[in-house]
Amino acid sequence: EYGRTVRAQIPHVPVMRDIERTLRVMRALAAAGTRPIRAAAVSAPTDSDLVRILRARTACLKGPTALNEVESKLLLRAYDIPLPREYLVNTAAEALDAARRIGFPVVLKAVSAAIPHKSDAGLVMLNLRDDAAVRSAFAQLGERSKTLNAKLDGILVAQQVSGGTECVLGISRDPEMGPVVMFGLGGVWVELFKDVSFAPAGLDRAEALAMLKATRAGRLIDGFRGSKPGDRNALLDALVNLGRLALDLGDVIDAVDINPFLVCEQGGFALDGLVVLRPPGSGGPGYN
Predict the structure, then answer these.
(1) Which residue has the higher pLDDT, 52 or 167?
(2) Strands 253-263, 268-270: parallel, antiparallel or unpaired by DSSP?
(3) pLDDT above 90: residue 287
(4) How far is CA 264 from the centre of its chain?
(5) N or C: more exposed end of the chain, with fewer CB within 10 A?
(6) Chain mean pLDDT for the chain
(7) What is residue 288's predicted lDDT score, i.e. its pLDDT?
């Protein structure tokens, strides 16, 4: 953390802590200088109503601020990140109606910006197969939220999607490079294996494919030891679209965490999503 603080104070001065890393970076810069610059790398960010609304919202922030899951997914949906069917409800009756429209089994989640990691807090109820299970889960989530003193923004009723390969997609902020797109093995494995790769904002499909090939997650999606391959194209689309988000809102996005992004045989789904906003110009480079 101390090193990150120092780098944030001098964002235009690269800091390398060993000779080997320094030489690798110099080699990469030299190689980059021999390649033509992609149009996407220098294109202007999209100017849309959504982009302007989010920038206006961040102008009054005092520091990084998390959106709740529903708000986060509205942004992801605007950038064509695929989501399961889901509805935000406030009563048990509304939860039952939503579950019947979606079709059982469903998932219920408590929605609160104060608790970004809901699973760890016991605020996610899986495999609800009938009306009685939905009623019980709705009541339990309400009680658990009260115990945690968390202000609820509602209950999310979502289609339960199973199978596939759990990946993590995201945007993280490097003190010197600004926003970068991240991909890797997701679910509970992301912290254990740290199997991730990175690419610049505005990446193209070739760069997205290189991200897959750099990770074990990419091998699983291609099919491993007889397992069926996942929908690589759906994943590549999601990564490229996430790169557009990073390019358009790099100045006001502190982080995006999509974990898991489930890659199925056909299609993929962002089962959970967290977006953290930041005040524009609050330290470190961005894209604006």
Answers:
(1) 167
(2) antiparallel
(3) no
(4) 17
(5) N
(6) 89
(7) 47
pLDDT score for 50: 82
What is the largest distance, in Å, between two alpha-carbon atoms of the chain?
A: 64
Task: Name residue, tokens 């009054």.
Answer: 60
- Residues with Cβ within 8 Å of residue 116, at least 6 apart in sequence: 66, 274
**In the numeric block, which tokens belong to residue 88?**
């935000």
Task: State which H helix or E strand residue 3 sits in.
Answer: helix 2-9
The full DSSP string for 149-211 is TPPP-EEEEEE---SSEEEEEEEEEETTTEEEEEEEE-TTHHHHH--EEEEETT--HHHHHHH
* CA distance linking residue 145 with residue 156, whole number of Å: 14
Chain position carrying tokens 């060993």: 18
CA 74 from chain centre, in angstroms, equals 12
46: phi then psi, degrees, rounded to nearest 5: -65, 135
pLDDT tens column, 68-90: 999 999 999 999 999 999 999 99
Residue 204's nearest CA partner among 249, 173, 169, 239 is: 239
pLDDT tens digits, one per residue of 99-109:
999 999 999 99
- The burial of 131, by beta-carbon neighbours within 10 Å (0-12 exposed, 13-18 middle, 19 or more buried), is given as middle
For 148-171, write each residue's pLDDT tens digit: 988 899 999 999 998 899 999 999
* pLDDT for the residue numbered 283: 61
229 within 8 A of 223, measured Cβ to Cβ: yes
The contacts of residue 123 (CB under 8 Å, 6+ apart) are: 109, 110, 112, 115, 141, 144, 145, 148
Question: What pLDDT, on the 0 to 100 scale, is given for residue 265?
Answer: 94
Q: Could you tell me the two tokens for 282?
A: 């609050």
Query: In terms of C-beta density within 10 A (0-12 exposed, 13-18 middle, 19 or more buried), how is residue 36 classed?
Result: exposed
